[in-house]
Amino acid sequence: MPASAVVDRPVNAAPPPANAPPGITPPGITPPANAPPATAPADPLVAIMPPDMAEWVVRRHGGTAPTRLDRAVVYQLYRAWDETTASDLPPFSTVVGALHAAAYDLDAAYPDAAGRPGLRERAGHARAWLYRYAPDRCWILGPPRDPADPGPVRDALAAIRAGAEPTADTARAARRALFGVDGGPGLRGLRQVFGDETIAAALDEYLRSGARPLRDRAEASP
Q1: Considering only CA atoms, which of 169, 178, 221, 219 is closest in space to residue 198?
Q2: pTM, whole model, 2 decimals?
Q3: For residues 204 and 157, is the Cβ–Cβ distance under 8 A?
Q4: CA distance 20 to 17
């Protein structure tokens, strides 16, 4: 066997699984003893994970960052990090799902995160990863649609204020009015996240000025 084919790993360590994404060192496998020292992690890692995790990733990858930061790679990195640190934070994939449901608004996704800085940090990193490396998965970044017809939007607003359920057509118009796209969670889900008072105020603002305060709020969320 040529020397280049020899893998330096602990005797009892299992070989990397056949389906492991390229550039990932699976949990339980340590870098070779002669691996280059970890360098100070720079962007892009520190934009999508805490500094200590970024340093850990660089060490595991022989002093360099992974060449890919797609969903498979980043989710596996976070799973391995959480196992290594016995983290009590929700999985990275769960945080991504919460952001999708809350229109990428950190406060709406995790309103109780003020007392859990680690959770707030993870949500911010998840949103940064989505915007930078998975924009095709962000429904709010979908193709902009024509302005919503004000008639159905008014009907949806009236139904919400009356405590009734908007029809399917008026609900779709209201969602387009709120965010300018046709994708994303339905109006019912958005009402559960933001509350009827906030949704009604946003629809009223759209009807008066064409503004989309919930979209603006998500874009401005730190």
Answers
A1: 178
A2: 0.76
A3: yes
A4: 5
